[in-house]
């Protein structure tokens, strides 16, 4: 009779510091393998199905197959994103845990403030992101021990201080792992091409970063990767609240 794998304890600050030291120069493969050994199915990859997330899904299939996968369906994603999710589901046999915003809150927001309130001010945009992304993320992370993201330092000015291992006090003390933190965009696309991975077709139309359809546009060659996200705001504000920077 096989024994069930014990559920790991919530990581402590001591473990966080130890992991920070031991994984600071680790490769993406090594970080994922560590997450597999330490957390297994109690860790999950948060995916918006951009280029980085496709790489993470492929790497996890090889080095951390027990990790779960979830996405936040805001209700305003481009059709190309849904098409890619189906391709990946079939290719890897994935179960994609999908979290929607609370219906009542979306209905109240759109009924009282219209369909594009997020363009009126930073506060209004953050209200929309809070309803469509932040609250669903809170539910997605409930009961987890760690989560894995595709954050990279090169992506924007708001992400230059991202570390490979972070302590997420906002979600109850989870470990937040960013295996691709030191990868460049060239590294990401080299991996995609070398492994013949599917990817969002919007990338071929000048969209390096893809979120909700009304809040995402193509970028110009001289702009940074996230310049097409909430482009009417300054670069320092282009985060939705999922990744809180201290």
Automatic annotation (TrEMBL):
The active site is at 240 (nucleophile). It is found in: Cytoplasm. Its EC number is 1.8.4.10. It comes from Hyalangium rubrum. [4Fe-4S] cluster binds at residues 128-129, 212, 215. Gene3D superfamilies: HUPs. This is Adenosine 5'-phosphosulfate reductase. Belongs to the PAPS reductase family. CysH subfamily. Binds 1 [4Fe-4S] cluster per subunit. Pathway: Sulfur metabolism; hydrogen sulfide biosynthesis; sulfite from sulfate. It catalyses: [thioredoxin]-disulfide + sulfite + AMP + 2 H(+) = adenosine 5'-phosphosulfate + [thioredoxin]-dithiol. Residues 43-218 form the Phosphoadenosine phosphosulphate reductase domain. Its main location: cytoplasm. Pfam families: PAPS_reduct. Signal peptide: none annotated. GO terms for molecular function: phosphoadenylyl-sulfate reductase (thioredoxin) activity. It is an enzyme of class 1 (oxidoreductase). Keywords: Cytoplasm, Iron, Iron-sulfur, Metal-binding, Oxidoreductase. Its cofactor is [4Fe-4S] cluster. Catalyzes the formation of sulfite from adenosine 5'-phosphosulfate (APS) using thioredoxin as an electron donor.
């Amino acid at each position: 009779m096989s024994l069930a794998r014990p559920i790991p304890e919530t990581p402590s600050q001591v473990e966080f510091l130890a992991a920070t030291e031991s994984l600071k120069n680790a490769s993406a493969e090594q970080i994922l393998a560590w997450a597999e050994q330490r957390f297994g199915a109690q860790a999950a990859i948060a995916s918006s199905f951009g280029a980085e997330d496709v790489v993470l899904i492929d790497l996890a299939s090889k080095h951390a197959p027990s990790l779960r996968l979830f996405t936040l369906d805001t209700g305003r994603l481009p059709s190309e994103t849904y098409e890619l999710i189906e391709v990946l589901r079939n290719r890897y046999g994935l179960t994609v845990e999908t979290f929607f915003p609370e219906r009542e809150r979306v209905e109240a927001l759109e009924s009282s403030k219209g369909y594009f309130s997020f363009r009126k001010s930073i506060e209004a945009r953050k209200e929309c992101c809070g309803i469509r992304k932040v609250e669903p993320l809170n539910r997605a992370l409930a009961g987890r021990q760690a989560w894995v993201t595709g954050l990279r330092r090169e992506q924007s000015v708001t992400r230059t201080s991202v570390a490979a291992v972070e302590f997420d006090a906002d979600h109850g003390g989870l470990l937040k792992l960013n295996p691709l933190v030191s990868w460049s965009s060239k590294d990401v696309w080299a991996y995609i091409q070398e492994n013949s991975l599917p990817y969002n077709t919007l990338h071929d139309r000048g969209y390096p970063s893809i979120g909700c359809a009304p809040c995402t546009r193509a970028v110009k060659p001289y702009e940074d990767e996230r310049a097409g996200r909430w482009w009417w705001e300054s670069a320092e504000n282009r985060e939705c609240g999922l990744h809180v920077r201290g």
